[in-house]
């Protein structure tokens, strides 16, 4: 019961401070003012903004902007279809690596932050502890379902997945301990 109270306090703290996550808010607003994924130059601009700065050129050189345009992702994004993140990550291939699903989940999440769980190292650790299973980059749909279940279980509904990722990052040690004991 003591751990439940601690987790509840952590959740309330994140809800109180979520307005301070300015980088995420700026990125989401940047994308909001560039709706649609039909214009290749706009998509390139978004890819450059969303990708980790040291890897942005990689995603452009690998043609992610062309794949995004070809997939016509806007309808799927608006409906929160997690499979579209997988298709973006595949970039025309059959396999997915960690870096590609991290980018694709973030690309989808900046368009619809309430629908697409972010794939990153700290969120992955928490989801694995919660579910008592391991996820590979090919498991994004299962991973997304687990993170959505956690969001529901802990009443994190007012938070978007950028906020939830910050919650996982800030409190990962406590959350891992909580999930491995329960």
Molecular structure report:
This protein has 182 residues and is mainly α. The chain has 12 helices and no strands. The protein has helices spanning 2-17, 22-32, 40-50, 56-61, 64-71, 74-78, 83-90, 98-111, 121-131, 140-153, 161-170, 172-181. The chain is globular and about 50 Å long.
Total DSSP E strands: 0
- Helix and strand pattern: HHHHHHHHHHHH
The parts where pLDDT drops under 50 for at least 5 residues are: none
Q: Tell me the major beta sheet.
A: none
Principal-axis shape: globular
Q: Please state the average pLDDT score.
A: 93
Distance between the termini: 10 Å
Alpha-carbon Rg, integer = 16 Å
Helical amount among residues, as a percent range? 55-70%
| Global structural class | mainly alpha
Q: Tell me the number of helical segments per DSSP (H or I, 4 or more residues long).
A: 12
Taken as a percent bin, the fraction of beta residues is under 5%
